[in-house]
Amino acid sequence: MEAVQRNKEFVPPYGSLVELSAPATGCNNASMYVRPLLFASGQMLGLAPLASEYTFFVTVLPAGGYFGKGSEVGVKALVSTDHDRAAPKGLGAVKAAGNYAADLSPVHGAHAQGYNTTLYLDAKERKYVEEFSVCNFVGITKDGRYITPKSDTILQSTTNIMLQQLARDRGMIVEERPIDFQAEISNFKEIGMCGTAAVVVKVNSIRHEDTVYDFDEFDTMASLRSELTSIQCGELEDKHGWMKEICDAVDTSFSEEYSPPAVSLAPGMVTAEAKGTVQKMGSEAMHGLERSLLEHVVSTAQPGNPDSVIAAMDAFWNKTFQAQGAQKWNVRGQKIEEKVQESVQLKAGSSHPVRCLEMGTYCGYSALRIARNLPEGGKLLSVEKDELFAAIATKIIEFAGLDSKVKIWMGTVHSELVNITDRMERQPADFVLVDHSKERYVPDLKLLEDCGVIDKSTTVVGDVEVYPGDERLPKAIQQEISEYFSDREFALASMACLLQVEGSCRAAKYRSCHRSVAAANCIPFFECSRCKSICAVPMIFEQGMASVRQHRRGWVKRQFTALCRLRFLALCVAAECSSDQCAVQTVHHEGNFWPSQTESNIS
C-alpha cells in the first residue's frame, strides 16, 4: 500500500488514454499493476533450506488491458498436450517465478500457430482442466452455473473469488470442482479467463488436438466483469469490503482510515534497514526529473489551461537547465507550432480531420503544443515505449484538458506499425514529429512511408538537437539522418540546426533569438528558396572557409546544382566565425549562406 501511495500520480485516470495494444475503454482498461517480488539475496551458494538474507520490493506500473482488444472481441486458446504447467504435488499453487518459466515455450508455440494463449490439463492424467497460461479458467454452463476448476496445482485468483461472490449475490450456483475436459467442455456456453491484470477475458474457442470448441456467448461473464470493475472504480457500492482507500487522488498523504501495517518478521529475522545494509529513502529522494515535472505542473499550472501548463513546463526546464540552453526548449516548441499551423491551414475546408503523429512522447510537452493548435476533430497519436513517460504524459495532457485530442500509444513504431496505421485510419498524416531515439529516425520514417502514413503531402519535422545529457551520435547515424532529410521528395522540415559531430569547435557560437549558447561543430539544415529542397550542410567552423572548400567537390556539390539563397527553417540563429581564414563574418538566417566573394569558387 505504501508503494501505491508513493506513486499515486502514476495511477491512470478514469477513462485513461494510456494504451498498450487497444483503445482505452474507461476503467475496464487502464490501471496500476502492483507487483511484489521476494527473493533470497544473501552471500551463499547452493540450495540451503533457508537463506540468511532476502530482498523484497514492490514495483507499480500503469498498464492497459492485458490482452488488448482480445478482452472485448475474444481470444483463441490451444490445449497444451506436450507440456505441463506444474507437476503433481509441485509449486503450481504458489506464485513462483518457475511456474511462469514453464509456460514460455508452450505459449510461444501457441502464438506461432495463431492462438492467443494455452490451456493446461492436469499433469497426472491429462484429463482435468487446470488453468490458462496466466489466468484461471471460469465458465458458465448452459443451465447457468458458474464453474471453475479445483486443484492443488492451480494458483488461486482473488479476481476469481470476487467473481464467484458476485455470482452468488445474483442467486447463481457456484461450483469449484474438477472439470473433466472431454466430458464437460461441450456443456459450457461461456468460457472466460480471469486474473488480476486480465480481469475477465472472453474465450472464443478452444482447440484440443483436432477438435475446436466454439463459445459464442459472453453475456453473463461480461456482466460480472462490469460489476466488478465498477466496484473497483467506485461507481458501485462495495458491499464486501474488498476496496481499501489508500490516499486521495490529489492529496499525497495517507487517508485517515489507513495506517501502514507494522512489519511482522519471523523470530531471528531483522530488516535490511535495521541491519544497516540499506538506507531508507523518502519519497522526495525517489523522484526523478520527470516525476518532479509532473508535481510542478500540478502544483503551479491552472487545470484545463494548456497555455498555463506549457508555461509551467518551460519554467521547470529553465530552472533545471539554467545556463545549459534551456531557452531552446521553448523556441523548439514555437517552431513545432508554426509547422502544425501551416498543416492546419492547408487542410482548411477539407471534410477530413487533421491527423498528426508524434514518435517519442516523453512527458507530453510537444504533444501539448501540437494539440492546442488542432481544430475540432483534429487528432494526435503519440507513440511512447516507456511506461513511466507515457503515464506522466497522460497525467499532464489530461490536466491540460487536451485528452480528447491526444492518444498515447505504448510501444514502438516497428512493433505497433499495424495499430498505428489503423489509428491513422490508413490515411497519410498531415504532420509528423520525429523525436524518439535518433538511431531509429530513418528506419521508422521509412516504415511509415511504406505503409502510407507519410507521403508527399506530409510535413515531417525531425528534432536533431542534442540536449544536455544526451550522448554524442555516431557519425553513421548523423550521415543517415542528413541524407534522409535532404533526399526526400515530399515536404520535410528540420526542427533544429545543431547536430553534434566529432571534435570541438573553438571559434563557433550559435545565438538563438534569446540568448547565446556554446555549441560544438554542427550540421545546419536549410530550405532552398528556389527549389524548396531541404539540405543538410556539413560545415566545420573550426577551420573557417577552408573546410567549406574541402567539402565543395563532394557532398555539398551533390546537393546543389546551383547556388541559391537559403534560409533557416529551425532555430532563428546567426553564426559567427573568428577564424582568420574565414572570409565571412556573419551568416544570417535571411541572408546568403555563402559569402559573395567565394561564390565562383564553390559553384
Topology, element by element:
Elements: H1 2-6, E1 18-19, E2 31-40, E3 54-63, H2 70-73, E4 75-79, H3 97-112, E5 117-121, E6 129-132, E7 136-141, E8 146-148, H4 158-169, E9 174-176, H5 181-184, E10 188-195, E11 199-208, E12 211-214, H6 219-232, H7 272-275, H8 289-300, H9 306-321, H10 327-346, E13 355-359, H11 365-371, E14 379-384, H12 387-400, E15 406-410, H13 417-423, E16 431-434, H14 441-450, E17 459-462, H15 475-487, E18 492-494, E19 509-511, E20 516-518, E21 525-528, E22 534-536, H16 545-552, H17 555-559, E23 566-568, E24 574-576, E25 586-588, H18 599-602
Parallel strand pairs: 1-15, 4-5, 4-11, 8-9, 13-14, 13-16, 14-15, 16-17, 17-18
Antiparallel strand pairs: 2-3, 5-6, 7-8, 7-10, 10-11, 11-12, 19-20, 19-24, 21-22, 21-23, 24-25
Helix pairs in contact: 4-6, 8-9, 8-12, 9-12, 10-11
Description:
It is a single chain. It contains 18 helices and 25 strands. With about 600 residues, it is of the alpha/beta class. It folds into two domains: about 70-230, D-amino Acid Aminotransferase, subunit A, domain 2 (D-amino Acid Aminotransferase, Chain A, domain 2); about 290-600, Vaccinia Virus protein VP39 (Rossmann fold, 3-Layer(aba) Sandwich). Strands 4, 5, 6, 7, 8, 9, 10, 11 and 12 form a nine-stranded mixed β-sheet that branches. Helix 3 links the parallel strand 4 and strand 5. The longest helix is centred in the middle third of the chain and has 20 residues, at about 325-345. The chain starts with a helix and ends with a helix.
